[in-house]
Design goal:
The chain contains six helices and 26 strands. It is of the alpha+beta class. It folds into three domains: 114 residues, DNA Polymerase III, subunit A, domain 2 (DNA Polymerase III, Chain A, domain 2, Roll), CATH 3.10.150; 121 residues, DNA Polymerase III, subunit A, domain 2 (DNA Polymerase III, Chain A, domain 2); 114 residues, DNA Polymerase III, Chain A, domain 2 (Roll), CATH 3.10.150. The relative contact order is 0.11.
């Protein structure tokens, strides 16, 4: 195998693959990346047996086809420390891999590429197509609400419901729930409706690899894995096993609920101010929706008290609810400050439901009042 490529596309591919390569593994071969060269193209792949990635390295000149395993960390360091625009010649003589630049040369031990597990490529079958901006929002607005430390493994992933012309992504840790929905298009036929639970780590890698806004994202779901193709990159991930909570029950129809419209930016600032005096033992903030104003107050024995007033368009009765400011801030941080949100409340013991006009919903369970 022998190829020539420049620093920037090779480094970009290595940085994406590094998310997958395990630092330590019972299988040392997994700490490598596999470089496969064919005429006019080269594909870099990595896997930890749960998550895999294949990405085409752009601008490669192939002199001899073949495959080689390269130690991920050392190759990354070699490429990263080189000057911008450096051209690398990489070849394997069967015993070692040689990485050569105009003023440097590295000879690295190379294991047998046949020992490296195969990493799935995107199948030529019916799949779902989503826009890149939507996928970015699906990830950003749901992953933060998952819980990787829960004994309920399903809470460590994002439920992705694909049916007809709609996609719904849901993340929850049992105390709050985030839901984002948008349009999907079936391509190559009529793929079956599916509801995979995708690991949060895989969702974050998908977001990291997204390309330009006009580049479509394709999803194919198999019984035990999901495959996502974005531009030159294909990501495969083993699905999370377990039963996901009945999330639709968390969004009940409450026609009698009080609804207040607020801007995300000013509300986030007020919540952060009120939370300054809270502590791990007394972490709740009281939200009092009064006629004409929202009053946020926090307190702790060691830090004192806070009272923040914020004008609102509300003329109904006063409703008070105590919530964890971290959960409220997490929701507001993924929104543009100018976005209008609708806060729906019935009383201090029932869930607070927040919605936006673009298909985003968020539920926070209240804390017990003092």
């Amino acid at each position: 195998m022998k190829i020539r490529c420049t620093k920037e596309p090779l480094l970009a591919a290595l940085q994406s693959a590094a998310v997958v390569v395990p630092a330590r593994s019972p299988k040392p071969v997994l700490t490598n990346v596999k470089l496969e060269a064919r005429e006019g193209t080269a594909v870099l792949s990595a896997t930890d047996l749960e998550l895999g990635i294949r990405t085409e390295v752009e601008g490669v000149e192939t002199s001899a086809a073949g495959a080689v395993l390269l130690p991920s960390g050392r190759l990354m360091a070699i490429v990263r420390e080189s000057a911008a625009g450096t051209v690398f010649d990489i070849h394997s003589d069967g015993n070692a891999a040689v990485v050569k630049a105009p003023r440097s040369e590295f000879r690295l031990p190379a294991e047998d590429p046949l020992e490296f597990p195969s990493v799935a490529s995107f199948p030529s079958e019916a799949c779902f197509e989503l826009t890149t901006p939507l996928v970015r929002e699906l990830v950003k607005r749901t992953v933060f609400a998952t819980d990787n430390e829960s004994s309920r493994y399903a809470l460590g992933g994002v439920l992705v419901e694909l049916s007809g012309n709609t996609v719904i992504a849901v993340g929850t840790d049992g105390r709050r729930l985030a839901k984002m929905e948008g349009p999907a298009v079936a391509t190559g036929g009529s793929p079956a409706d599916v509801q995979p639970i995708v690991p949060a780590r895989a969702m974050q890698l998908i977001e990291r690899c997204l390309g330009a806004a006009d580049m479509p994202v394709h999803l194919a779901v198999h019984p035990s894995e999901i495959l996502v193709k974005t531009g030159p990159t294909t990501i495969s991930a083993r699905l999370v096993e377990g039963r996901f909570p009945r999330w639709r029950d968390v969004f009940p129809e409450r026609p009698e609920a009080m609804q207040v419209s607020l801007l995300a930016g000013p509300l986030l600032a007020a919540v952060r101010q009120a939370a300054i005096v809270t502590s791990e033992q007394s972490k709740g903030v009281d939200f009092a929706f009064e006629p004409g104003q929202l009053v946020l107050s926090g307190r702790s024995a060691e830090s004192g008290e806070s009272r923040i007033e914020m004008p609102i368009d509300h003329a109904g009765p006063t409703v008070r609810i105590k919530m964890d400011p971290r959960f409220v801030s997490d929701f507001l941080r993924v929104l543009d400050g100018a976005v209008s949100i609708t806060v729906e409340l019935t009383d201090g013991q029932s869930a607070c439901v927040c919605r936006t006009d673009d298909g985003y919903g968020y539920v926070i369970m209240p804390l017990a009042a003092d």
